[in-house]
Amino acid sequence: MSEPDFPPELADIVAGLELAFLVSIGDLGPHTTPQHPVLRDGRFHIATPGPATCRNIAARPAVTLLWPPTQPDGHVLIIDGHAALRGNALEVIPTHAVFHHVGAPEAMTRRCADCRRFTLAPPYVLTGADNQNP
Would you say which domain of life the source belongs to (predicted)? Predict the structure, then answer.
């Protein structure tokens, strides 16, 4: 996915956020780590994934990036995608994103004007060569 294909509205949302949680799946279930992904060329780059994350990605490349709201009644950004190890770094190719408000349970049942859903790329299948252990 080239940068022009990445929705400018979503790029603006990402630019305003910093700390994300990367969720990968291991043999024992979900593994969550705090990260500072950088959006470049329509993909998220993570410079220093840990060894457990690398093992998980090598076996199961589907991941989720989650940016929590910056305010109690703000919006959460959730991006699903597929990850590939590139040397000692991790690259996440986003496929779907949801920008959704957080609030009281009664407010969660209706969509606010700022909530968005994005389909970013067709399903992406990684080959064994795409996932290399660092």
Answer: Bacteria
